[in-house]
């Protein structure tokens, strides 16, 4: 089934509150290229979503929340990588965060800190203090599909737009091919 994409500004009900607020605050040129589509929430996980909606995994991006620890200090960051790759959390992300240890943040922590649903977390609307690390391969995707903050929707936007979002750091080698 195809995605019925609408301008994100015209379908606020398909965006989690922090995502909706972030889209509203964007430069109009950036926000104009962000579209959203409702999906079956049971199909939100990447493999099921791509199969059901005919989206190439190379055009699907995942946003993961990472917790870097150094002593008692925890630093959170979001990593955006293509579904055909895996974030290098233990080496690249850990070093970028200046952490002694880095791992995926527990689901309940990620949900509480972002105000988004697990499986729908997206780089738009994350806490301002967080680093948003995006693998450089994302820039090359004509239209990247990523969460909308809720499991029942997906955002589609050019990879260039995703990489131009406020606070995004484009990193070569953030991820490795699966």
From TrEMBL:
Transmembrane segments: none annotated. Residues 43-160 form the YbaK/aminoacyl-tRNA synthetase-associated domain. GO terms for molecular function: aminoacyl-tRNA deacylase activity. It comes from the Bacteria. Pfam families: tRNA_edit. Signal peptide: none annotated. This is YbaK/aminoacyl-tRNA synthetase-associated domain-containing protein. It comes from Leucobacter triazinivorans.
């Amino acid at each position: 089934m195809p995605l019925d994409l609408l301008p994100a500004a015209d379908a606020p009900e398909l965006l989690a509150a922090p995502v909706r607020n972030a889209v509203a605050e964007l430069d109009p040129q950036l926000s104009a290229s962000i579209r959203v589509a409702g999906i079956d929430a049971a199909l939100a996980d990447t493999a099921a979503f791509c199969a059901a909606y005919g989206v190439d995994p190379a055009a699907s991006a995942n946003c993961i929340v990472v917790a870097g620890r150094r002593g008692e200090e925890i630093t959170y960051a979001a990593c955006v990588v293509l579904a055909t790759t895996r974030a290098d959390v233990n080496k690249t992300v850990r070093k970028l965060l200046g952490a002694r240890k880095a791992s995926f943040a527990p689901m309940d922590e990620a949900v509480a800190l972002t105000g988004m649903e697990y499986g729908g977390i997206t780089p738009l609307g994350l806490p301002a203090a967080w680093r948003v690390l995006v693998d450089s391969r994302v820039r090359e995707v004509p239209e990247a599909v990523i969460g909308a903050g809720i499991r029942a929707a997906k955002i589609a936007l050019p990879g260039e737009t995703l990489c131009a979002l406020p606070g995004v750091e484009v990193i070569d080698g953030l991820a490795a091919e699966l």
